[in-house]
């Protein structure tokens, strides 16, 4: 390996040509750094190759002169200030444009024929390994490298000495400060800052402090005390700007979150951190070392700059947290903690099951119309959505809609894990939740089956023929067979249930963010049409119920339309909702009479129903709970403690997960 390296280095040095065109000069740098990296498997080996490069250039004065000429041409044509100030930041402060830019960088190759230092940097130092070997370079190696790149004394007027580096740093600080000022003065941020932050006006004097620092750096008679004072004033100004911007986050608590606004805040914070890093480089007594550390940091910034996942994750995390929080507020209503609440939940679920019986029969009526796939799915979605909204307005419940709402409520309890009895209290909440689900599922299923039987009997009595033909009844049993795809479809339905809760949280956040309740309450045009009192009632109603309405309508249409769209693409995908499936079994049984008890297909379908319910509930709860855990930043250690405590409760008191304790019954 060593012989190959020594053979490659002379070849690289031989083709070094400062008079080459732009692309080939940059290609030489890219090839040199690729040689330094080697196989990217050993940092000491990469550092050793840097040492070989230094030794080889120092031993050849002619090569050193060509290297200095090449470097002088590079820094004259490629402005490093853009790299220091702008690398890693979006060219426009908008999430969509940044996503499009990263996607373009992923799909399209870069060209070395560029005067953009950021583009050249990403081509020359493209991997995380580059940050590792840059950090590992020793101070004496860095100083030797600077000496090799510096021009001879008689050409100092055109050199790249400390003054050039300081000027680039000062220009970068000025550019960053301008971006910070622009963002801080943006109306969507300024109006959301706290009143005290606006009154303090921290952004107003930022440029003045930057220019004060510039004067102290470039002034020939500058003293360390004056320079340090100017730097300290700038640091304090940056901290004041950061603190003012942070007050916007408290506004999110009651007024909703915009992903675009979060993106701008994160950009502002990163700009402030960049200025601090540049300031440290400017004042460092070891400029070569701090410059290498800064380059290593920019390499890591470049890794994030390429990642679509990192962009979406970092800028949607607060929105996910707020969606989880708003779902948590709704989910608290679905958790029972004593016998009276348990019985109330069962009664509400029983009422929901009775309403779902009509939905089941309406579904078979739509089948009889033989509509096209899209319109059949659309009207099925209308049927489901109307039913779910009616159940909400009647203050009843559908069991499978609860887990995605209750999971964030459970995760919200994890904010207090530091308390001595926090884990035990959380396991208590888990038992409350599980038995609430048991009550809701039983209430739905135990009522929808006999209710559908009764409706089917009435239809048969009124029409003189069964509601379902024998063939249709057989198809129902076949579609719900335990050994068929029903269990997979039930798990997929759990995903749709989770998706409806996300839509609900997002819709409520959007409603609050745009202050539509206040607009409906006070807007002159609306109050003129509805009247002041009615407008106030509608505003209050939507503020209290919009989340549930969004969840119910979206879930209904997803249950109806997703199978239709999947069929269009040739995917045999369907949904299996435990309450609706139980109703379908009831309708098919009514058509076949008591003889159905002798059919194996009937018992296979009945056997699948508990598993359908378990998968509906478990999948939607797991997805919502995982999202809520990430939103609450719960560590893996704490999760392990929670799981261990739940297993211990299952061993010692398994019935507590299904029935409330008598001592706690009201």
Describe the 3D structure.
The structure is a single chain. This protein is mostly helical and 666 residues long. 77% of the residues lie in helices and 0% in strands. It contains 29 helices and no strands. The chain has helices at residues 2-14, 22-37, 43-58, 61-77, 80-86, 95-107, 117-124, 128-136, 139-149, 162-184, 187-190, 195-200, 206-218, 224-255, 259-283, 287-306, 308-331, 339-368, 373-393, 403-412, 422-463, 470-479, 486-513, 516-522, 524-530, 532-568, 578-592, 600-632, 636-652. α14 packs antiparallel against α15 (259-283). Mean pLDDT is 84; it is low at 1-7 and 152-162.
Core attributes:
666 residues
From N to C, what is the helix and strand string? HHHHHHHHHHHHHHHHHHHHHHHHHHHHH
The protein's oligomeric status is: single chain
Main pleated-sheet profile: none
Query: Count of DSSP E strands?
Result: 0
Number of helices: 29
């Amino acid at each position: 390996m060593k012989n190959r390296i020594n053979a490659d280095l002379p070849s690289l040095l031989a083709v070094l040509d400062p008079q080459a065109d732009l692309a080939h000069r940059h290609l030489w740098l890219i090839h040199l750094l690729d040689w330094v990296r080697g196989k990217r498997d050993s940092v000491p080996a990469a550092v050793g190759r840097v040492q070989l490069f230094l030794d080889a250039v120092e031993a050849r004065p002619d090569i050193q002169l060509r290297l200095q000429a090449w470097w002088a041409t590079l820094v004259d044509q490629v402005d490093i200030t853009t790299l220091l100030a702008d690398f890693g930041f979006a060219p426009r402060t908008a999430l969509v444009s940044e996503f499009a830019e990263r996607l373009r960088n992923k799909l399209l190759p870069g060209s070395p024929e560029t005067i953009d230092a950021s583009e050249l940097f990403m081509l020359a130092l493209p991997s995380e390994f580059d940050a590792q070997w840059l950090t590992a370079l020793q101070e004496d190696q860095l100083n030797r490298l600077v000496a090799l790149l510096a021009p001879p004394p008689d050409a100092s007027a055109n050199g790249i000495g400390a003054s050039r580096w300081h000027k680039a740093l000062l220009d970068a600080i000025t550019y960053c400060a301008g971006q910070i000022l622009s963002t801080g003065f943006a109306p969507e941020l300024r109006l959301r800052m706290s009143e005290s932050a606006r009154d303090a006006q921290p952004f107003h004097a930022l440029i003045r402090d930057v220019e004060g620092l510039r004067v102290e750096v470039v002034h020939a008679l500058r003293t360390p005390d004056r320079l340090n004072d100017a730097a300290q004033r700038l640091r304090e100004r940056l901290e004041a700007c950061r603190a003012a911007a942070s007050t916007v986050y408290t506004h999110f608590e009651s007024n909703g979150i915009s992903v675009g606004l979060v993106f701008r805040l994160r950009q502002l914070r990163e700009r402030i951190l960049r200025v601090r890093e540049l300031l440290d480089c400017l004042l460092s007594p070891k400029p070569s070392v701090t410059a290498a550390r800064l380059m290593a940091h920019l390499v890591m910034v470049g890794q994030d700059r390429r990642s679509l996942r990192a962009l979406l994750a970092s800028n949607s995390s607060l929105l996910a947290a707020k969606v989880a929080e708003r779902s948590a507020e709704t989910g608290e209503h679905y958790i029972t903690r004593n016998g009276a609440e348990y019985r109330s939940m069962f009664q509400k679920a029983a009422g929901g099951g009775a309403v779902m019986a009509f939905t089941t029969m309406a579904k078979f009526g739509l089948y009889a119309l033989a509509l096209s796939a899209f319109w059949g799915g659309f009207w099925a979605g209308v049927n489901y959505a109307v039913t779910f909204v009616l159940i909400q307005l009647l203050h009843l419940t559908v069991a499978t809609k609860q887990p995605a709402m209750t999971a964030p409520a459970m995760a919200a309890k994890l904010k207090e894990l530091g308390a001595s009895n926090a884990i035990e209290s959380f396991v208590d909440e888990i038992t409350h939740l599980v038995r609430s689900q048991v009550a809701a599922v039983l209430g739905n299923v135990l009522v929808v089956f006999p209710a559908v039987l009764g409706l089917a009997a009435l239809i048969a009595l009124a029409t003189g023929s069964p509601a379902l033909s024998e063939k249709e009844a057989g198809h129902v049993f076949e579609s719900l067979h335990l050994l068929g795809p029903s269990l997979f479809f039930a798990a997929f339905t759990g995903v749709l249930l989770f998706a409806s809760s996300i839509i609900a949280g997002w819709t409520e956040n959007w409603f609050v963010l745009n202050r539509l309740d206040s607009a409906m309450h006070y807007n002159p045009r609306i109050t003129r049409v509805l009247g002041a009192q009615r407008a106030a009632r509608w505003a209050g109603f939507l503020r209290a119920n919009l989340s549930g309405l969004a969840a119910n309508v979206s879930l209904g249409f997803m249950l109806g339309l997703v199978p239709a769209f999947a069929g269009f693409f040739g995917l045999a995908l369907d949904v299996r909702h435990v309450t609706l499936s139980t109703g379908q079994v009831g309708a098919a049984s009514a058509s076949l009479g008591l003889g159905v008890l002798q059919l194996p297909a009937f018992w296979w379908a009945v056997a699948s129903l508990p598993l359908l319910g378990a998968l509906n509930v478990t999948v939607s709860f797991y997805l919502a709970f995982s999202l809520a855990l990430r939103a609450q930043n719960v560590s893996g250690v704490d999760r392990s403690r929670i799981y261990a405590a739940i297993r211990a409760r299952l061993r010692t008191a398994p019935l507590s997960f299904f029935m409330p304790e008598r001592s706690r019954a009201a």
